[in-house]
Inverse folding.
């Protein structure tokens, strides 16, 4: 398997808080890497560092042979990195179709694509995420599940190679959560994307991920196949407190 | 480069880019009627009520300022409170070149374009660096500083009395005929701006602007080069507004910063923007005419009181019609394919 993303000894602090402390890991092409850890462990911060919202204090990040440590976010997107947000951030005043159109047009430099063409292509992504009937609804009027679908459509429309999914299941009811998981698995198949899947619920990643990285207080405390992680005393301790270890 | 005419579309290919232009003759009637009305109005005024011509010129020029301003507002995601700065820049550049160098209006137009673009580019980083309130305050400040400078360097700018002796644009002997031609010129410029900005608002470029306006960070994460879009949306409208300044200078034959740079003028422009429903291109035309005639009416009715009354009437209108006059129309003709462009900051 080819190495896609490589994170080397990355650190980031906010004031006195070490949000990410000397973390290294890599993602291989085609895998689903689970990123796990209790609330506040630094999972979202790590994604923000890789997608360019924040710049690392130290360490470096490589993506497909490019050093992206200090690259501006939109260039990282064009290289093939995309993401969804833990708390959905749709474009409130755009219609669902229009917000996907933006990704289609700007996610990558396309050849011979007019606004109308982008509209047709965007429709495809909306359809894939089950939002075709909502294409003309303003994003702010969608419900939480639909917003998450839209975020996925928007992320896929940039034609990413690597996609960060930040806690898709948070706030969804079990039926919706199951649908969301199914959707992600199909996305992997259809679009051949590599996924970094953030979740603080262990059970989901046990099934979906091929490998899991665990963060705790900004440090990587474990990495390995899901089963191994589930039995790791350090991980159990970080989740349940020391008395259960 | 290759142009292709399809049944309903004009397809233009330049290099690896493809642009499509919808041609839908069945939608042409209404715009043609509106443009027709705008052209007929000055002609009617010329024959029956020539004193209305200056008001019509004013209306067109106000709209010509407000239209690029709405593009700027959308593309930077911020309210610029100092559009009159560029009027001052373009106007003074044109007036000074005309007076001291004797350059004719077509040449001073180029000067105004260059000066407008220069200041536009110079100030555009503000839209990236300064957020919300700071941006508003700074843009509000610039015209006032400029005004102050016209008084300090009064031997250049004649801040007290204004610059005289600018070559006038039209001179055909008859005063009213000159005014009619000037009015047509103003209308032409306004329609040109409307056409350009309207096309831009229906383009792929506008989709990125709308995204920036909604959430800059997410737009960047989806591949939009936010800074570039902001600089373009700042510098080009600024240049377009500077050209209006050029027009003022050659229309009146004089140019005084005190007429345009103070807050009163800014208020008028912003009101046009708001009456029209901030980023509605056609709404700005409605707003421009509305404000120009409202001002005329208030001057007629109240004489000296109007500078006080004018903002009050406008405020009342704004409170009662938050979406603008044009918003009322749009509500009944809701077609949601293109983004509804709102301004949030
Ligand atoms: N912009 C920020 N400023 C200050 N502290 C932050 C910022 N972003 C995150 N943090 C802090 O960093 C820690 C990790 O946060 P986060 O990455 O969101 O955790 P997770 O996604 O794993 O729940 C938290 O303690 C959070 O309060
Ligand atoms: Mg998080």
């Amino acid at each position: 398997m080819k190495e896609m993303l490589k994170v080397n000894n990355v650190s980031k602090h906010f004031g006195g808080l070490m949000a990410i402390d000397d973390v290294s890991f890599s993602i291989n092409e085609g895998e689903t890497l689970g990123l796990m850890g209790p609330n506040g462990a630094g999972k979202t911060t790590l994604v923000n560092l890789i997608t360019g919202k924040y710049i690392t204090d130290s360490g470096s990040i490589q993506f497909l042979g490019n050093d992206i440590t200090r690259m501006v976010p939109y260039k990282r997107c064009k290289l093939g990195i995309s993401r969804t947000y833990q708390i959905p951030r749709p474009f409130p005043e755009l219609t669902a179709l229009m917000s996907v159109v933006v990704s289609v047009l700007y996610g990558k430099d396309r050849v011979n694509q007019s606004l109308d063409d982008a509209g047709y292509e965007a429709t495809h992504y909306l359809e894939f995420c089950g939002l075709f009937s909502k294409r003309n609804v303003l994003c702010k009027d969608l419900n939480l599940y639909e917003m998450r679908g839209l975020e996925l459509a928007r992320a896929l429309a940039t034609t990413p190679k690597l996609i960060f999914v930040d806690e898709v299941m948070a706030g969804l009811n079990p039926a919706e959560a199951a649908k969301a998981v199914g959707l992600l698995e199909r996305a992997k198949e259809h679009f051949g994307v590599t996924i970094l899947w953030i979740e603080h619920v262990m059970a989901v990643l046990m099934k979906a991920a091929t490998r899991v990285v665990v963060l705790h207080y900004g440090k990587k405390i474990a990495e390995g196949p899901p089963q191994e992680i589930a039995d790791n005393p350090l991980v159990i301790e970080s989740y349940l407190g020391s008395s259960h270890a | 480069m290759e142009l292709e005419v399809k049944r309903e579309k004009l397809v233009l290919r330049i290099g690896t880019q493809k642009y499509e232009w919808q041609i839908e003759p069945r939608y042409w009637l209404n715009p043609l009627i509106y443009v027709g009305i705008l052209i007929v109005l000055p002609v009617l005024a010329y024959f029956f009520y020539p004193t209305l011509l200056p008001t019509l010129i004013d209306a067109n020029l106000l709209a010509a300022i407000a239209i690029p301003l709405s593009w700027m507002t959308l593309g930077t995601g911020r309210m610029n409170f100092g559009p009159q700065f560029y009027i001052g820049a373009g106007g003074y550049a044109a007036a000074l070149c005309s007076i001291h160098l004797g350059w004719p209006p077509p040449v001073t137009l180029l000067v105004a374009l260059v000066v407008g673009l220069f200041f536009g580019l110079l100030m555009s980083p503000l839209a990236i660096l300064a957020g919300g309130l700071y941006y508003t305050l700074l843009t509000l400040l610039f015209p006032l500083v400029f005004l102050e400078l016209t008084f300090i360097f009064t031997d250049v700018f004649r801040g007290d009395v204004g610059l005289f002796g600018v070559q006038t644009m039209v001179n055909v002997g008859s005063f009213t005929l000159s005014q009619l031609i000037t009015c047509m010129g103003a209308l032409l410029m306004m329609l040109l701006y409307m056409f350009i900005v309207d096309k831009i608002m229906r383009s792929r470029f506008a989709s990125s602007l709308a995204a920036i306006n909604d959430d800059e960070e997410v737009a960047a994460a989806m591949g939009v080069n936010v800074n570039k879009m902001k600089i373009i949306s700042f510098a080009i409208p600024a240049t377009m507004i500077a050209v209006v300044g050029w027009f003022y200078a050659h229309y009146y034959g004089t140019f005084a910063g005190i007429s345009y740079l103070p807050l009163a003028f800014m208020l008028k422009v912003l009101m046009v923007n708001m009456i029209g429903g901030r980023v509605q291109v056609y709404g700005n035309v409605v707003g421009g005419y509305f404000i120009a005639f409202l001002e005329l009416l208030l001057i007629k009715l109240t004489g000296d009181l109007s500078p006080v009354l004018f903002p009050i009437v406008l405020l009342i209108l704004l409170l009662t019609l938050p979406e603008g006059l044009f918003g009322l129309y749009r509500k009944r003709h809701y077609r949601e394919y293109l983004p509804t462009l709102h301004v949030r900051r």
Q: What stands out?
A: Strands of chain B lie at 2-5, 9-14, 17-22, 163-164, 254-255.
